[in-house]
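so ive been stuck on this for like two days lol. basically i have the seq below and the ligand is zinc ion, smiles is in there too. i just want the complex predicted, nothing fancy, no docking runs or whatever. if the output looks off dont worry ill sanity check it later, just need somthing to start from for the group meeting slides
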Amino acid sequence: MPLKLDDIDYAILESLNKDGRKSFRQISREIKVSAPTVKARYERLVNIGLIKAILPIIDFGKLENKTSIKLDNIRSKTIKNHGVKITKGLLVKLSCDYCEGPVQGKPSILKFANFERFFCCTSCRGLYKEKYKGRIEKLSGKIPPI
Ligand SMILES: [Zn+2]
């Protein structure tokens, strides 16, 4: 007998379709169902083979055009994603998380909680830190798990 998807299954699939990186807790808050239920339903969807994989969606526009030249000494280990080859050593363009300008040279990095933000210069990093001070402190603090 086939398994009938209910509202919860549907809500989980819809939520993961937008962003497969979400935690069970995030989905739980979003669809207003407990985290253990989300986990159990997710696992069932995997076990019955409906969810086959959670895959990254790669933004190919972020890759440098000239990267192939620099691949000389790199063993060719490639991943095919939508027909485009992903190779070790590919260069990914970075844009500043504050001014959105291109990051030339070594980026200035800010890490907090699970996040990592990249900036073109230390002043953009400082301005970002100032702008999102409250949120950064909240995310870095110890939030009790549910
Ligand atoms: Zn900047």
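Strands lie at 78-81, 84-87, 108-112, 115-119. Residues 68-76 have pLDDT under 50 and may be disordered.
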